[in-house]
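Researcher: Structure prediction, please.
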Amino acid sequence: MKKLLAKSWVRTLTGVAACMFAATAVQAEPFKVRLDWTPWGNHAAFHLADQKGWYEEAGLDIYFEDGNGSVTTVQIIGSSDNFDAGHAALAPMMIARDKGLPVKAVAPFVRRNDIGVLVPKDSGMKGPADLKGKKLVYTAGSLEAPFMEGFLAAGGLTRDDVELLNVEAAGKVTTYAVDRADAVVSTIPFVLPFVQKQRPSNSIPFADYGLNMPSFGILASEAKLKTRGEDISKFASVTARAWEYIMNGHEDEGVEAILASRPQARLDKAVLRGQIDALKPYFGKPVEGFRMGQPIPAEWEEAVQTLTKVGLIEKGLPATDFYVTDMVKPGQYDGMIKK
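Model: Predicted structure follows.
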């Protein structure tokens, strides 16, 4: 009789566990994210967290869609209901919000402005003053364009002191790599690993010359923050914890996760690893009391000053109007992501 009772309890508990598992699976909510671009090193945390099932454990059924530029992603997130969150450069988000688009930053990961000028290692160019008389390839319609005057002015130059060659974004890197320009203006961590073999280069960051602001991070519309706030918090928090994991000596795992998620994309493993390594300085130095992805008020004050100085935002909104607080909680997932 005791054995029969024991078996009965085992069957009962097994059935309860199965029901609980099924309930958990049902509770995984579809969550759509629009990215800034096609896969690159800056997406490592997304693919690794997805591959390891961390999003699923948090109750999210994640879907990522590649993007074709941060500006487009910001516009889509702010004006449509198709996505729950986006990943893009956050300066375009600030500019769009200043113009009335209802979007806010949730989790700034790349906290330092990663736009700058790449120059050949053997050129001797180390700052804006050294660019006098040089040919710079850039894209007039991109985010870098409004900062050119302020950057050149830091070296005592004007636009008339350099030759600016306007090239479509897709052809910019090639133009520089084949030596048809003396320098290229772009997102440093994205471009640097691409050109290092063909034309070894150094970078001159805009941030070093009074033009600092947050770069890549997660954003959402005000409407989604109201209706999907809890899920957005989970997504941002898991991603933040995944970045902490990657930057703690697991960079190659991040690379492998990107490759596994896009097997047909012909991605270069060395370039992806180079992009992650190049991103590290732009994630910013640790600040006491803040963990990965949590907005740091002083940095957003600086961002408002930078964008106001170059005339990209005008309404005088306080820095706190551009981001939300208390949504990024990587500590909640310390137990799930061990190191």
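Model: Residues 1-26 have pLDDT under 50 and may be disordered.
Researcher: Thanks, that helps.
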